Amino acid sequence: MSMVEDINDALDIEPAGPGRFRANSLRDIGEGDVVFGGQFLAQMIMAAATVDPAKSLKYVSAVFGRPAVRHEPMDIEVEAMHGGRSFATVSVSVLQHDKLCARGIALLSSEEPDIIRHEATMPEVDGPDESLLYDGARVGADATIAGGREMRIVGGFHPGEPSLVRDPVLRHWARGPGLDGNPAKSQAFVAFVSAGPNISMAMLPHDGFGTMMAHQSVSTGIMTHSVTFHEPMDAREWLLFDHVSPYAGHGRSYARGDVYRRDGQLVASFVQDAMIREFPTDPGVARGGRTVL
Questions:
Q1: pLDDT, tens digit, for every residue of 242-256?
Q2: Is the pLDDT of residue 126 over 90?
Q3: Looking at the domain 7-112+126-278, which fold is it?
Q4: Alpha-carbon 53 to chain mean position
């Protein structure tokens, strides 16, 4: 098992038998040694897309039940639940050492003509050239293009800073300049990126809380994440991710958002439920990079 440096390589899952794939983990995305939930979802998309290549993936939803360790092997299992002329439904599971970590459902569809059509309008924001580079840990001159994912945050603030207090709204641009032209990889990239900043955003209205504390004094983790794909996109080009968190409480946060091409076309929407709670006081509970579920 080897960890990889670029998301394009992490999305190149390897066949490991009928309905089974082996997946590599990104080295520098996530906290400590825990696999980022967005990586689970992105790799699920790549596995589901193999079931019926004549159809395109329209929806994926996953529940994350057990953390996985980045430096240890992961397997992805796919099962075709239904396949017809218009739709195909796929069950996807991620396992580590034969223990179930995440399970998802994907819907694939043939293309159909419009009966009706409307869509949300992209918000008017600064473009990527006017926004600051953000890598999940740093903003501005010290930030890097982490894991092959280039992100630029609108407004230039750090969403994980505990002393920062703002409305729970976050907008940023992202692209994967090293991706190849596989449309499934662009969808997987969108799912990966859409899963990232939602917990940070939910903490923004609350002074003294931020994801700089995550996995140290606060236990955070993605519980569920769903993405609906509306239109084709090429994630090698800039996409605007528009996040909002209308609710947080009872140790949970809720976020939703939309993804737009630079020309204003709405291409995807997403929803996430996550966990935000204190670590248990039991000294036997592991800290420092582990999510306590």
A1: 999 999 999 999 999
A2: yes
A3: Porin (2.40.160)
A4: 23
